[in-house]
Amino acid sequence: MPVQSNNIPACLGIEFKKNMDEVFKIPPKKNKSPKPLSKRDILKMEIAQEMGIWDKVEREGWQSLTNAECGRVGGIMKKRIQDQKKTESFKFPGQK
Questions:
Q1: What is the DSSP letter of 62?
Q2: Is 48:73 a contact under the CB 8 Å cutoff?
Q3: What is the pLDDT of residues 34-44, one digit of tens each?
């Protein structure tokens, strides 16, 4: 059986390829209205700036980060949030 250059058997022809393109077509992305930034989002952005990866995030998005970079950002976020909770819960003697 002859095979076309795009790995579709010649006997199936162009119509088959057109139909398959329709079936597997990726829908266009919808424009979403921006959500207000949460405190965690702001913290994440600050950490990315400190690490020097903010330019990459702005250009390519958060999904472009490696696992190591994501883990580093998440670890630093966790530590800062825990430290903040400790300082907020700490009361000097005599305070109510």
A1: G
A2: yes
A3: 789 899 999 99
Contacts for 65-71: CB closer than 8 Å, 24+ residues apart: none
For residue 93, what are the CA distances in angstroms to 63, 82, 90, 96? 47, 22, 10, 9
Backbone angles phi, psi at 88, to 5 degrees: -70, -35
Report d(CA 45, CA 29) in Å as an integer: 24
Q: Do residues 81 and 46 lie in contact, with contact meaning Cβ atoms separated by under 8 Å?
A: no
- pLDDT one-digit tens code per residue, 54-68: 999 999 999 999 999
Q: Is 73 exposed, middle or buried (0-12, 13-18, 19+ CB in 10 A)?
A: buried
